């Protein structure tokens, strides 16, 4: 990493409805403006409500293939502008807010051609952006990204039903009583996460950092998703890409894991609808294949981006 050029900065993001100046924080690893540089890979983090840290591992691709990496914190998250005063405002926290932010970032950084990788919620966002057929976008990677929130919730709850009965009972009790911030509930949800979010033990520090940011400011997650993974009540409740996935006209790679929160049926509509698509399945992974099967993940994604297939 020491030999790679690393830039951190902020770009202005004008959001009239925010009522105050906003900025998007970003980090670039590798020189994406160099004349001999490959197209940068722009990576969109999940949540919604975590931050960029757990995607810095994608700099493996920079090391191996000289692919510059650009990560950023979406508005309301991490080092970007926070808007806790917008808690509960579902008319403000929409996917269009984040689509506009991505376009703004690319424009202000002068990125004309790029590949896009989105993980989880970031993949949902990336798929929506790709369906708009930006001329500069050349490849798409959808990592553990559901094609619809209703499918996501359905299979999340099927996974939940496989938890030990005592863990399910704790989850049920605290959700009924509205005490999901209790230590007991957090332990129970931790059991779910250790099976279906990330099987690496202990949890990698960059992944844990994302959850810490969500606890510091839960505005985006609570407003867009709701209090937990199992029942989306926020602005994403009816979200789906199934009717529009066929509009994605760039080569696309889907990835997910055997134990993934994004189970196969939640990813499958992308495979069926996108014209130029491959699907890589990770047999030993849950939701964080880039950590759980790091070497294989980087090999598959790197070859996809470099080969152009």
TrEMBL record:
The keyword Hydrolase applies. Keywords: Hydrolase. GO terms for biological process: proteolysis. It comes from Mycena sanguinolenta. This is Proline iminopeptidase. The keyword Hydrolase applies. It holds the Pfam family Abhydrolase_1. Residues 40-293 form the AB hydrolase-1 domain. NCBIfam families: pro_imino_pep_2 (TIGR01250). One of its GO terms (molecular function) is peptidase activity. GO terms for cellular component: membrane. Belongs to the peptidase S33 family.
């Amino acid at each position: 990493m020491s030999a790679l050029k690393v830039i951190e900065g902020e770009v202005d993001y004008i959001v009239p409805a925010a009522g105050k100046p906003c900025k998007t924080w970003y980090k670039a690893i590798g020189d994406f403006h160099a004349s001999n540089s490959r197209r940068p890979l722009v990576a969109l983090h999940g949540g919604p409500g975590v931050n960029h840290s757990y995607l810095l591992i994608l700099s493996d691709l920079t090391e191996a293939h000289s692919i510059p990496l650009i990560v950023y914190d979406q508005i309301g998250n991490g080092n970007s502008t926070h808007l806790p005063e917008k808690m509960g405002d579902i008319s403000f926290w929409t996917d269009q807010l984040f689509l506009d932010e991505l376009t703004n970032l690319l424009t202000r950084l002068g990125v004309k051609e790029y590949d896009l990788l989105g993980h989880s919620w970031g993949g949902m966002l990336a798929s929506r952006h790709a369906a708009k057929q930006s001329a500069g976008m050349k490849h798409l990677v959808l990592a553990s990204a559901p094609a619809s929130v209703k499918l996501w919730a359905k299979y999340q709850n099927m996974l939940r039903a496989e938890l030990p009965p005592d863990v399910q009972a704790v989850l049920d009790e605290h959700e009924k009583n509205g005490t999901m911030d209790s230590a007991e509930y957090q332990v129970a949800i931790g059991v779910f996460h250790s099976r279906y979010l990330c099987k690496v033990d202990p949890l990698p520090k960059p992944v844990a950092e994302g959850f810490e940011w969500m606890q510091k400011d839960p505005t985006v997650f609570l407003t867009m998703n709701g209090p937990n993974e199992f029942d989306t009540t926020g602005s994403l409740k009816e979200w789906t890409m199934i009717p529009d996935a066929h509009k994605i006209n760039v080569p696309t790679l889907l990835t997910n894991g055997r134990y993934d929160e994004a189970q196969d049926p939640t990813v499958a509509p992308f495979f069926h609808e996108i014209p130029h698509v491959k699907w890589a399945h990770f047999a030993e992974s849950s939701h964080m294949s880039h950590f759980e099967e790091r070497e294989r993940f980087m090999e598959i994604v790197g070859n996809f981006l470099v080969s152009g297939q």
